[in-house]
UniProtKB/TrEMBL annotation:
Domain of life (superkingdom): Eukaryota
InterPro entries per the UniProt record, alphabetical: Ankyrin_rpt, Ankyrin_rpt-contain_sf
Keywords: ANK repeat, Repeat
Record's protein name: ANKRD44 protein
Pfam families: Ank (PF00023)
Amino acid sequence: MACHAHCRRLTPLERHARELRRSDAEGTGENAPMNFPMYTVPLEDLLQMTDIQPHEVLRARDVLVEFHESRGNGLFVSHQWVGAGHPDPDFKQLQVLQGALRRIMQNVHGIPPDVPSHAVFPDARSWSTAKLRSSPLLVWYDYFSCPQLEQKEYSSLHGDGTSSSLLQAITSIPAYIERCAFFFVLCPVIESATSSKLFSRHSWSERGWCAVERFCRELSEDSSYIFIKTPTVLEVCLYTRSLVEPPGEGKFLVEADRSKLGPVLLGVVRRKLRHLLKIRDFVGYRLLLNSQNVLLRGFGKLELTFEPIGGFELDDGMELDAAAVAMSSFCYQNGFTSVNGLDSGGLSPLHYAALRGDRFLIGSLLAHKADLHCKSQKDIPQAYIMPGLSPLAVALMVKHNDAACLLISARAEVSSYEMQSASGADNAEGISLLCQAGCSPHQRGRFGVPAILCAAQWCALDSMGELNCLSDRTIDISQALFYVIISSRCRAEAVQWLIEAKADVDVTYQSPPFLSIYGLFHAFMDMQHRLGRISPCSSVCFHTEGRTPLMTAAMLGQYESAAVLIAAGAKLAACTARGLSAADFARGQSVPEFLTQAFEGNLNGCRRVAALAIDTSKLVEERF
């Protein structure tokens, strides 16, 4: 048996990977193109700044250093432009970055994972800051590192397509990120005096340019990144988001940017595909190959290829019907020898076809006896795959609703897993399809929580509304406030929606049943906290009894949500069973002034911030 396994004939995919490894060994590896030099600012110069000067001024003063790995580690800073024509006119954002970096360099030993990361990776430990102190830091920040003053050059991005220094720098962003050891997201809560808009982690995640930068980081060798909310509140994100939050669905002030950026990101995907083959990560390769049209959704028509391996030929005697050709080609490209084979990730060909959303391909596989009810066998956190997911659940997760209709018509089973996938993906249409097929909106997901709470933990507002409308009985949605607030996609609009739907702003948290999966996770995190492994996730599990949504928001640095809750009348004096109030949880966090004022009895700032936070109609004019 061992000899037989050793002598197994390689699939075309494995042979192709071997050839790529050979070409890489011969020095023909492929890196992201750098069309403009990578200019950076040494950390010591950044920390001495009192205002933000553009690239040209810093270059004339010899402040900029052209990056090379031999000079130190690169630090890429992703952020939003707070002003029109200037990234930070009041120096509020960069001051937060300076404070955070000073603390890291002096006495902070670890940065904890955020709550969703800990939920995905329960054994995750704090990220060691010793890495940041191991070599000199060279900081890439767009206003410093890219040409700014030649306004006419920027028009070429939207005009005739002629080359410019700025455009060359923009198209080099994937290369800059690839060369940086660290990626920081600078996202403090800031009120813009010039635009009457609020900036925060949520607004950063919505902005198209920031999502593009995040996408490039997630497809680099190290996909983790660090959120900076205040100088004292930093969190590490360990999971990827692009599959459920494609960058092309972000907000771009200039719509033409989408079509310009699409080919750049397609190049990122293709380089990553080559890399995955070289390291023989065939599961990662299949996931990326078949999710291209999801990841690049919103960037217009691109020349996607699902058949990168040449040499496909039909076996002798095989009928030349289109379904057989589609099925055989798909298996050839993905390294499957059977329509019902499982790869090392526990996924079948039909799972990958559902991820691609190709109705004809799915029909071809079903016509050749593919198992409609095959379930995933393993956890693949980077793709939001858990054991027990059907091809239908995968299609719903990435909003391939046409493919979902086909699978349902073929009599695919509808259950809690499918409802959880649609709910978390904010797929209101998918929820409707499931309910039409006999699934209940009251289905409980893998962790034993109702579907509406599954939607809330992803801040899936469309799903929450759809589930609420389809419910045939009153749903107590008060607990959903906690799930929204701990969500990585937490937004004030979802908190406000729940309040308007009669959620109790002072409700106390209900612990899950101990013997449920969610209950066991709670117990594990509580134990970690008692043993001294303190993190945002362990804190919310330790401080359970008597905890309110406002306390949770203060604990996790969700300052927008705290403002909305306070404006809605949440009790500031309420305490947990251990006697701690929201003000106690916020102590030591360098909280925004509007929250400090609220704890002192002045609620006007929170009311103003709450009004800004739920107004999504304004968009600051940003160059990139």
